[in-house]
């Protein structure tokens, strides 16, 4: 039996470029007054970025921290790439106390960041400006001591990738080892935009 095709989500302002441009223009103004304020880090209440870092750093996945390249689609303020570059700390796990109850250890071990090519793209010019500004402040600009995290304006639905897309010297193919999406597909699904045949994107 063939499964029915899923229905489109109801359109929302979250699916419009105007909404995101207004949001990041507001965040830019706030950041200018308070550099510690980089705007909303989406899904921070569920520690989404930290969980991604845990997974991408896992021995099971086996990514090379020195060479793995990343593309972050819908990068916003760039917070995910900054975390991947800087690394972080992870807990040592849990152990049993004398009564047999699990007890979390307080100590955390450092986790090295990724050093390969990192590019964040967004169709909002204001988002790209904000991410570039934060990158410079965190030592990840073009001449940053921590290694550049690059940000470019790109509408993934309607435009071809620019010269920032890396090319493999051996195969000549363009692309990245890892492509990240922390909610961009959700926003696309909420758009009213239609293709040349009148179909929802």
Structure description:
The chain has 201 residues and is of the alpha/beta class. 26% of the residues lie in helices and 15% in strands. It contains 5 helices and 8 strands, in the order ααβαβββββαββα. The longest helix has 17 residues, at 17-33. It is globular.
Estimate the strand proportion. Answer: 15-25%
Q: Helix segment count?
A: 5
Q: What gap, in angstroms, lies between the N and C termini?
A: 27 Å
Order of helices and strands: HHEHEEEEEHEEH
Would you report the number of β strands? 8
How would you summarize the topology of this molecule?
Blueprint: H1 17-33, H2 48-56, E1 70-73, H3 79-86, E2 88-91, E3 94-96, E4 102-104, E5 108-111, E6 118-122, H4 125-137, E7 150-153, E8 178-181, H5 184-189
Parallel strand pairs: 1-6, 1-8, 6-7
Antiparallel strand pairs: 2-5, 3-4
Helix pairs in contact: 1-4
Q: Which properties best describe this structure?
A:
alpha/beta; four-stranded parallel sheet; globular; 201 residues
Short description:
The protein is α/β, with parallel strands linked by helices and 201 residues long. It contains 5 helices and 8 strands. Strand 6, helix 4 and strand 7 form a beta-alpha-beta unit.
């Amino acid at each position: 039996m063939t499964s029915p095709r899923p229905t489109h989500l109801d359109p929302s302002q979250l699916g419009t470029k105007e909404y995101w441009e207004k949001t990041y223009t507001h965040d830019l103004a706030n950041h200018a007054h308070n550099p510690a304020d980089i705007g909303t880090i989406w899904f921070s209440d569920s520690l989404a970025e930290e969980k991604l870092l845990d997974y991408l750093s896992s021995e099971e996945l086996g990514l090379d921290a020195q060479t793995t390249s990343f593309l972050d689609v819908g990068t916003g303020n760039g917070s995910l790439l900054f975390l991947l570059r800087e690394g972080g700390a992870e807990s040592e796990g849990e152990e049993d106390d004398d009564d047999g109850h699990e007890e979390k250890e307080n100590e955390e071990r450092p986790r090295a960041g990724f050093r390969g090519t990192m590019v964040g793209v967004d169709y909002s010019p204001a988002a790209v400006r904000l991410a570039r500004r934060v990158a410079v402040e965190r030592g990840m600009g073009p001449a940053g001591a921590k290694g550049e995290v690059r940000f470019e304006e790109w509408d993934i639905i309607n435009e071809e990738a620019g010269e920032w897309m890396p090319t493999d010297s051996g195969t000549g193919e363009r692309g990245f080892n890892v492509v990240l999406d922390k909610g961009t597909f959700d926003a696309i699904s909420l758009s009213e935009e239609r293709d040349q045949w009148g179909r929802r994107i």
